[in-house]
Design a protein that fits this description.
seven-stranded mixed sheet, four-stranded antiparallel sheet
């Protein structure tokens, strides 16, 4: 099993910044992709950003140029630096980790979520 613990959420004014952290522990062998998803009230959970063990990154269009995902493999931690925050960024942010064997996802793990609220 893999445990993911997020931190760093909070309340911030529009235009401000927050940095989310997610620490992985447990059976982290072959954890390749780590990423962030978010869920706004009344909406489905959506992809935000992901980073591979080789540090390749992908972002959803709405956060490109504002958010930066990074990881520290030695600490088994992934970060999400969020700048120029907008009210529409409000939601619960979830950390995700995928265990991959060759090209098949054989494990999919989620953190408990951290609330991000951006006031206008």
């Amino acid at each position: 099993q893999v445990q993911l613990v997020e931190s760093g959420g909070g309340l911030v004014q529009a235009g401000g910044s927050l940095r989310l952290s997610c620490a992985a522990s447990g059976s982290i062998f072959r954890i390749n992709d780590m990423g962030w998803y978010r869920q706004a009230p009344g909406k489905q959970r959506e992809f935000v950003a992901t980073i591979t063990s080789g540090r390749s990154t992908e972002y959803t269009d709405s956060v490109k140029g504002r958010f930066t995902i990074s990881r520290d493999n030695a600490k088994n931690t992934v970060y999400l630096q969020m700048n120029s925050l907008k009210p529409e960024d409000t939601g619960v942010y979830y950390c995700n980790a995928k265990r991959v064997l060759l090209t098949t996802v054989i494990g999919d793990y989620w953190g408990q979520g951290t609330q991000v609220t951006v006031s206008s």
